[in-house]
Amino acid sequence: MISFFKKTAKEESDYLRSVPLVADMHSHVLPGIDDGAKNLEQSLDLIKELYDMGYRKLTATPHIMGDFYKNTPATIHEKLIKVQLAVNQRKWNIEIKAAAEYYLDEWFMEKLRREEPLLTFGDGYVLFETSYINQPVQLQEAIFLLKSQNYKPVLAHPERYIYLHDNFNKLKEIYEMGVFLQINISSLSGYYSIPAQMVAEKLIDNRMVHFAGTDCHSMKHIQSLQATQTKKYYARLLTLELLNNTL
């Protein structure tokens, strides 16, 4: 590790190209279903950009939120089929799948308590997010219910939650509860905030990152992802045993 961090900028750039991420498990590229791509044309533009960056499998994860995006497996599947057909017509060598990004609200808790089937990616992974400001009182119950139903909970972008910025011990506690942690790649260039960048870097330093997601919604995220690939901590991220490419 010591010798790695003494690499020149060119050597680090060469290293990045030699260890690409080829699978993403967090994006909003399905059209007209949440705050991501607005239509099929935008979906295809985003997918083509991610394809050109080296991705060969994308798992779209539309928001499911009780107050705003009451998506269902049926509505998500309908959009997925449209995108898959369009991608196949263009003969792009990229696989498109879909799961969801569940918001930890009472609507989600009711799904868990009723043991309603959830949308997953990979080997039973469920992506969920929380309020950015306040730690949800149901967090531990949600994790318990997910694990008791044989799901593998994945906390989306933990570095972005303000209630965790000054409480790294709480992050460790969540990690030690068996929750998989997924950071947003663009956090490493300060795209969301400097505190979010610092938490993401600390997670990498502590080797507490399981997945790296694009969380791609729009072209501005594509530009940020491209810029982040030149950053030192992106190179460090790729030295971890990330689970992306196992998908």
Automatic annotation (TrEMBL):
Its EC number is 3.1.3.48. Transmembrane segments: none annotated. GO terms for molecular function: manganese ion binding; protein tyrosine phosphatase activity. It catalyses: O-phospho-L-tyrosyl-[protein] + H2O = L-tyrosyl-[protein] + phosphate. InterPro entries: Caps_polysacc_synth_CpsB/CapC, Pol/histidinol_Pase-like. Keywords: Hydrolase. Belongs to the metallo-dependent hydrolases superfamily. CpsB/CapC family. This is protein-tyrosine-phosphatase.
